[in-house]
Amino acid sequence: MAVIGLARRDGGSIVQYPFTRLDAMALKPGKSVGRGAGLPQLTEMGFDVVEVHSTPRPTDTHQYSYSEVMPVWDGGQSRWQQAWAQTERPLDAAKAKKIEAIKARFAAIVSAGFSYRIPNTPPNDLHTYQIEALDQANMTSVAAAFNLGVPDAHGGFWRDVANVNVPMTQPECEAFFTATLTYKAACVRRMWTLITAAEVAADYTALNKVDEIAGAIDRSGSWPVNGS
Is the entire prediction scored with pTM above 0.90? Predict the structure, then answer.
């Protein structure tokens, strides 16, 4: 790993990190320390200075956060390494993080669209359609026009995510709307089921059973299957 800075030791233990030229000037007023001063120059000034090598920062989770602490000695590598302390979040904060993750997962699923094949068409004639709020509102508007007897209210097609106009009759379009809105509603219900499970979790054991990626609770259930 790369050297990321210097640390000052006293009696073999690190007492100051990071340690820079400004720190050296503060400890030895009147001493001139060049801008490019590194380990050799600071050592000449009488400081016990060592290089610190980088260690990847662990990824924060809903349960744990990580903060940098004093470097530690790595006997295997014979060098000082950057170190990170793990802190368990309060349960309420962890719940908030978990709920954020559930909502983000839901948003990603919706953003991916809904894959649909018109009945009695070739198996490979599968198209993906946008189902964001604006798209859903557009479907509702066209469905209302159908109910009012407006002929060909959809223009004879529905555009997929690749901007391909997919031909549909009115009955086919109505069936498509039903399938799409059913899928979206099922995703919304699953999101709220997961959020509720996170909100009522009594401890981390229960909270960690809520899997926002799979949509499962204690390995049971899942996000709705995309595709028709």
Answer: no
